[in-house]
From TrEMBL:
This is SRPBCC family protein. It holds the Pfam family Polyketide_cyc. Residues 110-230 form the Coenzyme Q-binding protein COQ10 START domain. Coiled coil: none annotated. It comes from the Bacteria. It comes from Actinomadura nitritigenes.
Length: 262
C-alpha cells in the first residue's frame, strides 16, 4: 500500500468515526430530550398537586425542579431534603391553611348493655383510674369539668363544657385551654342487648410545640384508640361484675343548660 492509498483509507476511517460519533450524539440527544420532556411533565404535575400536598410533595417538586434546571442528582437530592425539612418546620411552628385542626374519628364495641356503658362514661372522675394519660378530672358542675392530662413529659389542663347530653344517646362538649383544645361528641349505639358501639368524634386544635409535634405524627389518634381500649377493659372487667355500683348521671343538657337532673 502506497502513501496515497493509506492516507485515503485512514481519512475514510476517520470520517466514518466522525459520522458514527455524530449519530451517537444525535441518539443521545434524543434520549435526553425524551427524559427532559418527561421531567417537565412531572414538574408540571407536581406543581399542580403541591398546593394540596404535604411536605413530601413540596420536597419532590423542589427536587424535580432542581433536576430540570440542570443540577446534578446529588444537588437535586439536597433540594429535596432541605425542602422537606423546611415544610416540616413550617407545619410545627407556622400552622396550616386549616388552622391546625385535626379531626379524629374512632369507634369501639363494648360487650355490655348500652345503659351500663353510658353510665360508666358519665363517671368522668373515674377516668384517671383506667386511662393512662388522664391525671385528674374534677366536675365543677353538671356541665363543666376540669381536666389534667399528660402530654409527653409535661402536662396540660383545660375546662370542658357539655353543651348537649341525652342519656344513652350522646354527649357533646366544647373546651377552653391555653395550649390546644379538644371539642367532640361521643355517641352510644345498642347493637344488641349486650353489645354497645361507642363512636367518638374529636376536633383537636393543637396549641403548644409538643401538641403540634404530636399533631404532625397523628399521635392523638393513636392515643384515643388506646384510651378507648382501656375504657372497654374497665367496663368488661369491673363494671360488668358489679353493675349495681355504677351510678351514672341521668340528667339532660341542651344548649349548655341543664334541663333535667335525673
Amino acid at each position: 500500500m502506497n502513501f496515497r492509498t493509506g492516507f485515503a483509507a485512514g481519512a475514510g476511517g476517520a470520517l466514518a468515526a466522525v459520522a458514527a460519533g455524530r449519530a451517537g450524539r444525535r441518539a443521545a440527544d434524543r434520549v435526553v430530550a425524551r427524559f427532559e420532556a418527561r421531567l417537565e411533565r412531572s414538574v408540571r404535575r407536581l406543581a399542580a398537586e403541591a398546593e394540596q400536598g404535604g411536605p413530601l410533595v413540596r420536597a419532590a417538586l423542589a427536587g424535580a425542579r432542581a433536576l430540570s434546571d440542570g443540577k446534578s442528582p446529588g444537588r437535586a437530592l439536597l433540594s429535596f431534603g432541605w425542602t422537606a425539612l423546611k415544610e416540616t418546620l413550617k407545619r410545627i411552628f407556622g400552622g396550616g391553611r386549616r388552622g391546625g385542626l385535626v379531626a379524629i374519628v374512632e369507634q369501639i364495641d363494648v360487650g355490655a348493655p348500652c345503659r351500663l356503658v353510658y353510665d360508666q362514661w358519665t363517671r368522668f372522675e373515674d377516668f384517671p383510674s383506667f386511662m393512662k394519660k388522664v391525671i385528674s378530672v374534677e366536675q365543677a358542675s353538671d356541665e363543666k369539668l376540669d381536666w389534667k392530662a399528660r402530654v409527653f413529659w409535661s402536662s396540660r389542663t383545660w375546662r370542658s363544657t357539655i353543651v348537649e347530653q341525652v342519656p344513652d344517646r350522646h354527649i357533646v362538649w366544647r373546651s377552653e385551654a391555653a395550649k390546644g383544645r379538644v371539642d367532640g361528641t361521643v355517641s352510644f349505639h345498642a347493637l344488641t342487648p349486650d353489645l354497645t358501639r361507642v363512636l367518638l368524634v374529636l376536633e383537636y386544635r393543637p396549641g403548644g410545640l409538643f401538641e403540634r409535634t404530636g399533631n404532625l405524627w397523628r399521635a392523638q389518634g393513636r392515643r384515643v384508640r388506646l384510651e378507648l381500649k382501656h375504657f372497654r377493659r374497665h367496663v368488661m372487667t369491673r363494671s360488668l361484675t358489679a353493675p349495681g355500683g355504677v351510678e351514672g348521671w341521668r340528667g339532660e343538657i341542651h344548649e349548655g343548660e341543664v334541663v333535667r337532673t335525673s
